[in-house]
Sequence to fold (824 residues):
Amino acid sequence: MTKRRLGKVLFVSMLLTLTIALSGCAGDKEDGGSSESAITIGIPQDLDSLDPNLATGAGTQEMLFNVYEGLYKPDSDGNLVPAVASDCVISEDGLVYTFTLREGVKFHNGNTVTVEDVVYSMNKCAGNGSGEPLISAFSIVEKVEAPDDKTVVLTLSEANKDFLSILAAGETCIVPADVADLETTPIGTGPYKIVSRSLQESVELEKFDEYWGEPAHIEKVTLKILADADAVLMNLQGGAVDLVARVTAATASELGDQFNIVEGNMNLVQALYLNNGVEPFNNEKVRQALCYAVDKQEIFDFVANGKGFAIGSSMYPSFGKYYMEELNDVYTTDLEKAKDLLAEAGYPDGLTFTIKVASNYQQHVDTATVLAEQFKKIGVTANIELIEWETWLNDVYSNRQYEATVVGMDASTLTAGALLKRFNSTAHNNFTNYNNPDYDAAYANALAAATDEEATGYYKECETILAETAANVYIQDLAEFVAINKKYAGYESYPLYVMDIAKLYIVEE
Amino acid sequence: MKYVGKKLGAMLVTLLLISFLVFLAFDIIPGDAAMAQLGTDVTPERLEALREEMGLNKPLIERYVIWLVAFLQGDFGVSYKYNMPVAEMISSKLPITVIMALISFAIMVIVSLPLGIYTAKHNGKRIDRCITVMNQVMMAVPHFFLGIVITYVFGLVLKLFVPGDYVSYEKDFGAFLSYIIFPCVAIAIPKIAMSVKLLKSSCVEEARKDYVRTAYSKGNNTSKVLYRHVLRNAMIPVVTLWGMTLADMLVGSIVIEQVFNVPGIGRILLTSISYRDYPVVQAIIVLIATVVIVTNFCVDMIYQLIDPRISVQES
Fold:
């Protein structure tokens, strides 16, 4: 008897579950029709930290750009414009920076930004006097003072022409002095504030009404994490997501006509990076031979439907001032010359090497595949080894145990140094083991230069040396495809890795 | 009781072994949790300082023991990536995966029970042959592929749901269910096929036994014999299968989560592995292992309850 009753209870409860499940299924799918404007933006990975000083991922800085601001900030043309500060005076010797605080800048918690907050933020970046600076560029900051309630003075131990750019980077922004844990209570001065966050799922932003500058247009923003290219395509097509930056060329072509595709640059230096410290790439002739074997247009065709921006050195076109288009022609495809160079270098029968590529970056994998085919024509066999990103960081980037790799390098600040510093023979992140006294000298000259023109000249010399010695096989700045639902407009490309959500607006129908 | 004790002991040893193997695996594969946290632009000094702070420079065994002692005291540690207690991270995502597994399980039972009995009744007839063929196909198709097909057919073509438009269970439970039902169906289908096949063959086999003839001779009709006598015996292997399936579904949903963009335990596990976030991975793996082992243990126990003829010999 009891058994039978148990059976009945079980049966009824199962029926109930099914009914609930199915009724949920039949529920209609209205959006609620609220008047509040909203947008859902797909992002490829979760934000690694909501504390801007601790956030490292480029994708995190890209989004936190809307939440936090520095004393200065970059605009879409790559200029530095005053943000929390309204003005900056730099002393003749380049050692003293005097900032005037902008009046009436508010934090997301409603408090007004004071000089104490600025001093606190700067000290935080400098490591609060406790040994290692949090931001490595802050090692030259000697002291931070506030002589009155709207002035902050930064004194450096040595001049650095790029210092203002560093202050405009996302990781050196102004945060409130009285909030200890920004991870759980993220508070900045940007046009959007963070409302809530669900791990690996989404981050909710809301327009900050007391923003000092031009206010944002859209009230509510959801950043939704889309793990892979399939999810991106499905979410866009299904209407769950309105905007995704950096979709693949294939995805872009598959999207229907309810989307606009904005084309731009990824702002990356994509190259076949060669370990200059090992055989055979310690031989300049071998490196040059590879450069001569490459047909860039074929790579563009294969990777991004013919789109891409050729580069000839470690600098991409968005850096108008430093970019040298003429370096693209240092090596034009010439298979005979390539073979001759290989023979001169002592490899008349060709050679074999391995390209390690991080498997999560499809564009780099594709590029490596095309390169391997092109190298075959000069008798060079390139084996491709796909590795996980963390393995890449460890083996290739940190331990420099590799022969060649395809990857893209981005610039964290709007400075030439961000792309050129790593080729100094003593740079800690010189993962290509490039060692050239001429280069070191030119770079040192650029840093010591008195005027901007002079510095630019030396930076260009650096680029030319990299190209002429074929430090790496420089390929392209990849084309970027931003997919935006036609309901929205206002997307602006930056020369940095940021997305300016405040500029987006809804198109009136 | 001795048997239970023995089983429990074996369980603990297995868990210990699994947790150690995960630790070891992380030690072998390349990658550095400190670097994953700080990114590529970091200075070697700061990297070293963080490695020291995280205790990554200690020998493997020492790290394992430190982790184990804390774990046993209920301290699952803090995620390297999110700087958040692991327990909190898992508990916010666990309901998603558990609800998915339970719904899939319910679907499986509700569909396979009548279908199995029906095919057993019509054994050898055309309808039975049709179902058997379908069963074979469904068993052979992996659930993630079914997931893709379901997304395409119900999501993109029939527009019954918006693919990828997952709604959090905390925000709107109804909308959550109406989304989650589709991945659940994908998980359930291969399991339905399996249990229908097992239930049918088990029924058919039982029906050939002597007691069934006796039951008929007592004047019972087909239905009565089937439900009162045959089914009860035929259910034994099926219940065993279901027990194991429940554990399987919890694990299986990890894969399906990726197909349907559901941010459950599976998503946390995968991203934590790629970020070398050891504390999170350790906790999730031990959790999953515990579920699987405990379920198997329970199945063993239930097995005895259903059929008193089966008792575990104490040697």
